[in-house]
Amino acid sequence: MRWGLVPSWVKDPRKITLLINARSETVNDKPAFKNAMRRRRCLIPADGYYEWQVSGGRKRPFFIHRRDGAMFGLAALAENWIGPNGEEMETVAIVTAAASADLAVLHHRVPVTLTAGDFARWLDCSSDDAAPVMALLKGPLPGEFIWHEVSTRVNHADNDDAQLVLPITDEQRAIDDAPRRAKAAPRKTAPPSADDGQGSLF
Asked: Residues 190-198: contacts with CB within 8 Å, 24+ apart?
């Protein structure tokens, strides 16, 4: 599936904001998500996820995972977009909720994470009604998840190895914090928007 939900009624996917998150508080009201919430709920299996914080002028990545180390499912919504020429595109977005007090130290929003006991309930769309699963749309309980800083190697898509989830070492932190030799080119900034957060990471 492509990351970023494209509603079935969109005429041109190139002209829609990338919808990578659906806010639990409004997921039943937003036209982009309400049909998927009733009929196309899915899960993204995970053992953790990343969040970034700015500290000392640098964005530092953290790996967030369950305290017991268990796998979990990110509550997600799927859509099948069909174009005018019959082309198809499967897309997905995760559902987010307000963070508990401990996780709010990293970010005020978190993915809705489900344990195995709730998988079948979330995936059952036979009633064409989202009401039975609305109680699941909440963030983890305080203390359920923990986190640690990892290397900024995770910032580069070319890096994909088990080291990316390990706690950062003092040696790696020194490398990460070393002054950059080449001055980066100025980044282009997008004009301010009225986005309510459903297109942001969380």
From this structure: 195/17, 196/23, 196/26, 197/21, 197/23, 197/109, 198/19, 198/21, 198/22, 198/23, 198/26, 198/30, 198/32
The two three-digit tokens of residue 23, written as one number:
């806010």
Q: How far apart are CA 12 and CA 6, in angstroms?
A: 9
Q: What is the pTM of this model?
A: 0.83
* Whole-angstrom distance, CA of residue 115 vs CA of residue 70: 9
Q: How many domains does the chain have?
A: 1
Residue 192 counted as domain residue: no
From first to last of its 202 residues, the chain has per-residue pLDDT tens of 999 999 988 888 888 888 999 999 999 999 999 999 999 999 999 999 999 998 878 889 999 999 999 999 999 999 999 988 888 999 999 999 999 999 999 999 999 999 999 999 999 999 999 999 999 999 999 999 999 999 999 999 999 999 999 999 988 888 888 775 544 555 555 554 445 545 554 4
Take residue 167 and report the two structure tokens written for it.
């706690």
Q: What is the CATH number of the domain that holds 7?
A: 3.90.1680.10
Which are the contacts of 188, defined by CB distance < 8 A and separation ≥ 6? none
Residue 96: count other Cβ atoms within 10 Å of its Cβ: 28
Task: Give the domain extent around 72.
Answer: 2-172
